[in-house]
Write a structure and sequence with these properties.
4 domains, four-stranded parallel beta sheet, alpha/beta
Amino acid sequence: MREGNLEAPTRHPLDWKSPDFHDEAKLFAEMERVFDICHGCRRCVSLCQSFPNLFDLVDATADGEVHGVSKSEYWKVVDQCYLCDLCYMTKCPYTPPHEWNLDFPHLMLRAKAVKFSKGEVSGASQLLAKTDVHGQFAGIPIVAEVVNRVNGTMAARKVMQSQLGVHPEAWIPQTATQRFRWGRAMNNPGFTVVNGERTPGKVAIFSTCIVNYNEPGIGEDLIKVLEHNQIPYEIVEKEQCCGMPKLELGDLEAVERSWAANMPVLAKYAREGWAILSAVPSCTLMFKQELPLMFPADADTQRVKDAMWDPFEYLVARHRDGLLKTDFTQALGTVSYHIPCHGRVQNIGRKTEDLLKLIGKTVEVKLTTVERCSGHAGMYGVKNETHPIAMKIGRPVFKSMAQPNPDVIASDCPMAGHHIAQGMAAAGTPAKAVQHPLALVRRAYGIA
């Protein structure tokens, strides 16, 4: 037997409908097996709070071994996992095809599913995960502005803290006064489809909850970049939340409902040869990885997986096809760019950085790239009990992003970008502009 795994990691389908999946005794047996291996390795100690919690539990036993840890204490490890996947993708030497077959994130997902099935996930947490419910006020004149104004008051934040468990100092997104999907015609602008060797010549945009309800400017930036490159596009005809917030809770049946609503619509685009773009890495990852592993036998799901692109993955491939315009005219100045975890685990390389460097060949761009977890991780970054830990995890990122005294900070993950700005401000760094990298590309093109 070789020490470590010298081959590329592979992911097994998630057998979440098997009776054994929700068997708590079998879950605990597998957790003990995996925790014992992790305890003997400890390479992941710097990633998140799950591993320090695990190792502290083990070190506190009489003989310093996993078998001395009470099974009830295992939840202290599970509750700190936010499914970033970095342990699997960057640290663990025992992932498949290694015979020890470790998949720590999916083991934690299984534990979260067992906890959810037992009714041990709070109603407040479930409500926080209902992004389509939160977005119902977006785009309604006056109402959205009132919601934002009220949510900014200390009184409202105290109510959120007591009723929803939202930390009063955590950044929360504002409600958009104009929904992205409402502000745009669904039809493409009539450009000629030009397929490349690597890229389809037409794009279907899956807007995502945060773009549709909170930050429609990101979608507008994407559209402007596509239009500048004369790439025909459509906004996906109909969509629901991708399911990532429910996945984080272990509510796999709710994930299945979102899958059932989205997949027939997206599969139609995939069959017709569209590239499907999603501007939020977590949403893209759901369709590229999590849903295909949950529904491995569904042909449409696998078809959508193959058609789904990160926007910068698409644009860089378009450049390699010789079909991306490089008529950049506006300097971007000093940029601190953060690569989010759910972008890293897509195995596409540093495509956003590649495009920013391409821009830098024509106009001035002083780029610093930080490739480390910001700590936000969706709901983890806003909850009472975990927001302080999220800020702690993010400190090395905050420091690295601040070091070049940037004109702007950027992250492909909108939530991570704002979290980083908050962390930098808390550390005494003067406030910086937060922009999505798509906004930087639009600006570099000189598009108003």
